[in-house]
UniProtKB/TrEMBL annotation:
Keyword Transcription regulation annotated: yes
Organism: Ottowia flava
InterPro entries: GAF-like_dom_sf, HTH_MetabolicPath_Reg, Tscrpt_reg_IclR_C, Tscrpt_reg_IclR_N, WH-like_DNA-bd_sf, WH_DNA-bd_sf
Stated name of the protein: IclR family transcriptional regulator
Family matches, as Gene3D superfamilies: 3.30.450.40, Winged helix-like DNA-binding domain superfamily/Winged helix DNA-binding domain
Amino acid sequence: MVKPLSSDDPLDLAPDADPGLSEPKRQRRIQSIEVGMRVLQALTEQQRPLALKELAALAGMPPGKAHPYLVSFMAAGMVKQSPLTGHYELGPAALQMGLAALQQLDPLTEASQEAAVLATRADLSIALAVWGQLGPTVVRLDEPRYPLHVNLRVGTVMSLFNTITGRVFAAYLPEKMVRTMLEDEHRRVVGGPSADFDAPEIQRLLAEIRASGMGRGLSMPQPGVNTLCAPVFDAAGHLALVMTMIGPHGEFGAEIDSPAGRLLREHAANVSRRLGYVAAQTD
């Protein structure tokens, strides 16, 4: 349930701070908009048509108070009402607004904020990698207080199957895309075709990544260095980028359920949420 606001006055304006105080002056808010947003938020969270009584309860207000907001939202196209059931759901204007917001989102910008915070909280190196022309490519690297000496920098292209970052990409990207990139990588490095994708061991590793939602590597990408990777998804459920945590073997065990692992999962989920991704509900 959406937490109700402290004031029920739809026209109440939040007061400015006392000019004599040293704190910055607070901006005035229109209380009626904040109250009305509880109705839209309830419809957004439920993702299904709702009867007036249920919708009002979820928004934390009586039906008589919720109804005028719904009338105004319907006039603006933000909400529509079924002529058969009388239930309410988000309208075409809400869809247009959501699509416009998604088009303005930049995955790297959103992830960079989280990566910087995560590097500080975990005191470990955090790399962001996107899918580039040559494969998984590092586009940001946040170092801890005492940087780890690894052969990794912005612009580094990660091997598709010989790094955990690459395997996470392989686990979530379309198979055709992965096969094509694997063939190109094998041809550049070794020469000739590659049958690695169909190897039972590789398929098992990719399945484990999908099952746990993260990838773990010991002494990868180099001896004495452990890595833990988490995928970030966009609003369509497609892989947007991979967030990788890197640390020395003696201090960082790269356990998925460790405090560091939970931090990585939390921040990766934060980015996915900002990009509009809604995780599937589990029983």
